[in-house]
Specification:
The protein is mainly α and about 90 residues long. The protein has one domain: Fe(II) trafficking protein YggX (YggX-like). Helices cover about 50% and strands about 10% of the residues. The protein has three helices and two strands; from the N terminus they run ββααα. A two-stranded antiparallel ribbon has the order 1-2. A hairpin with a 4-residue loop joins β1 and β2. α2 packs antiparallel against α3.
């Protein structure tokens, strides 16, 4: 039986993540209130961000930037601006 969460990103009930994918308090918050479809959307954005900004996950500043973008995207409803990326209509 899939668990359901009220997804803060989708603003509706949706299938929850199977396990906590991110460490710490933020990870718990994501697990409790972000759905699988919303997480999948974030992963697409994250990949584009990492590629565009040539982020190195070994660099703490880069990880911090990605984390703040993730919080903005998932919890504050802010879309991530990626240079040269035009969403398909």
């Amino acid at each position: 039986m899939a668990r359901t969460v009220f997804c803060e990103y989708l603003k509706q009930e949706a299938e929850g993540l199977d396990f906590q994918l991110y460490p710490g308090e933020l990870g718990k918050r994501i697990f409790d209130s972000i759905s699988k479809p919303a997480w999948a959307e974030w992963i697409k954005k994250q990949t584009m961000l990492v590629n565009e900004k040539k982020l190195n996950m070994m660099n703490p500043e880069h990880r911090q930037l990605l984390e703040s973008e993730m919080v903005s995207f998932l919890f504050e409803g802010k879309d991530i601006h990626i240079e040269g990326y035009v969403p398909q209509k």
